[in-house]
From TrEMBL:
This is Phosphatase 2A regulatory subunit B. Residues 15-101 form the PP2A regulatory subunit B'' EF-hand domain. Residues 117-216 form the EF-hand domain. GO terms for molecular function: calcium ion binding; protein phosphatase regulator activity. It comes from Coccomyxa subellipsoidea (strain C-169). Keywords: Calcium, Metal-binding. The lineage of its organism: Eukaryota, Viridiplantae, Chlorophyta, core chlorophytes, Trebouxiophyceae. Gene3D superfamilies: 1.10.238.220, EF-hand (1.10.238.10).
Length: 338
């Protein structure tokens, strides 16, 4: 397995990990290659002991972790992780932390049970008929109806990425995981690429005023319906230009957005997420203070923490007096989701 003349200990750790994970002599890792690793983690990690009697939830947790890993590391979008991807990524450091940390929820990269809980619950809330698929009408309810019809149409046209679901007009769980990770953290290359493809109607690698206006028109209409003071597109375009500072005036490329990652997501929220656009306009000082207090947290980390608290509070009445909320949630929902 190892290069001739070298022992396992002399091989770079990430190379050893790659050789252990891949199967059949392939020069890449696929999703199924990670199942054995997740099975071992579920069997041995003290923070996941409460799942040992519920194989259905173990399966969903493992699937979600694997999808999160591929979301971050599969640079080609072909469902493959190469050695180069692993070297550029953070899976090894996350596994090292997981080995040291008994509280799995402190391992924010990939393995947090709370993060899985939030993703799965959000999917289950939208999946009205519980067939494990989401249609356009289901997704329109996401985030208290925050998304426009036009952006949902683009998602379902598979502009951002081809659906793993083979059911026409339906988004599966994998597709939803990619969506929610991109929607709730628009400050990384993966999510910026996802939304850029949705807005780039003519696929020429540039976002132009006519494309942005196409999406913003619906935002204007929604603001008027909610008696919100509408913000003219000309003002919005000027604001976006000042934030992103594109190389060519009035034309936004993906590279322009990646140079301004911390601000680029605001451009997308302005175009198709009314609730986040209004939140940006009002500049909630509490949210700003939260971000300044712990700048190491990503937008996804903050969202997941807030949503987990909300879900826990909703269930507090049912679970009052319990010492293990996670275990009771599993027992309560074991028959429902599956």
């Amino acid at each position: 397995m190892w290069p001739q003349g070298l022992s396992a200990l002399q091989v770079e750790p990430v190379v050893r990990m790659f050789d252990i994970l891949r199967t059949g002599g392939c020069d890449y890792v696929v999703q199924s290659d990670l199942k054995h690793m997740l099975a071992g983690i579920l069997l041995s990690h003290p923070g996941l002991e409460f799942l040992q009697d519920t194989p259905e939830f173990q399966e969903r947790y493992a699937e979600t972790v694997i999808l999160r890993i591929f979301y971050n590391l599969d640079r080609s979008g072909l469902g493959r992780i190469t050695l180069r991807d692993l070297k550029r990524g953070d899976l090894l450091s996350a596994l090292i932390l997981l080995d040291k940390e008994d509280d799995v929820n402190k391992v924010l990269k990939y393995f947090s049970y709370e993060h899985f809980y939030v993703i799965y619950c959000k999917f289950w809330e939208l999946d009205a008929d519980h067939d494990f698929f989401i249609c356009k009408e289901d997704l329109l309810r996401y985030g208290n109806h925050s998304l426009t019809y036009r952006i949902v149409d683009r998602i379902f046209s598979q502009a951002a990425r081809p659906f793993a679901s083979k059911v026409e007009g339906k988004m599966g769980y994998e597709d939803f995981v990619y969506f929610i990770l991109s929607e709730e953290d628009k400050t990384n290359n993966i999510s910026l690429d996802y939304w850029f493809k949705c807005i780039d109607l003519d696929c020429d690698g540039c976002l132009r005023a006519n494309e942005m206006l196409y999406f913003y028109e619906e935002q204007l209409h929604r603001m008027e319906c909610l008696s919100q003071e509408p913000v003219l597109f000309e003002d919005v375009l000027c604001q976006m230009h000042d934030m992103v500072q594109p190389e060519a005036e009035g034309v936004f490329t993906l590279q322009d957005l990646k140079r301004q990652k911390s601000l680029a997501g605001i451009l997308f929220n302005i175009l198709f997420n009314l609730n986040k656009f209004i939140a940006f306009e009002t500049r909630d000082p509490f949210v700003v203070r939260q971000e300044r207090e712990d700048p190491t947290l990503t937008d996804w980390d903050r969202f997941a923490r807030t949503e987990y608290v909300r879900l826990a509070m909703e269930e507090e009445g049912e679970f009052r007096g319990s010492d293990n909320q996670n275990e009771l949630w599993v027992q309560q929902n074991l028959e429902g989701p599956f």
